[in-house]
Amino acid sequence: MTAVFLRMSCLLALLVAGVAPAGAVVNEASQQVSRVLAEKGASSSGDVLRARRLLEEAIVANPANAHALASLGRLYQDQNKTDLARKYYRFALEVEPAEPDALFGAATIDIADGKTDDAADKLRKLQLSCPACHQTNELSAALKGKTPEHGQSLTATPPATHP
Fold this sequence. Notes:
This protein has 163 residues and is mainly alpha-helical. The protein has two domains: 29-96, Serine Threonine Protein Phosphatase 5, Tetratricopeptide repeat (Alpha Horseshoe); 97-148, no CATH class. It is built from eight helices and no strands. It has helices at 2-16, 28-40, 48-61, 66-78, 82-95, 100-112, 116-129, 134-143. Helix 4 runs antiparallel to helix 5 and helix 6 (100-112) runs antiparallel to helix 7 (116-129).
């Protein structure tokens, strides 16, 4: 029992430090926990401590669970802890560069911070990897009318070039 606790503590410490064990593969139990939490909306139901604990357990069980990492990012974002949210979105994107929830969450933080170019880059990744995802549509709508740092419309179609 003590050995299991120590192993879980070490894995969580590595994750918090930004180090994922090499060759980590998502296992079904870890994925199941993150799916159940997403379906139940544990973070929005007010049971934030339980949701965080379950997500952390899923991540300790499998540090390559990008969905659980993104869900933990969302939980922190919902609590206005944007530094922690950004950190867990970054972890999720390191594991799975096209993870829709992580791209969307990180982009909404970018928009709030006035980093519309960064948000537009994440939208382009979403459009390529998951054009029909609700995250793609919501982010596109959030960026409509925003002016990026370089002055072009984010959602306008680029002008056609003629040979």
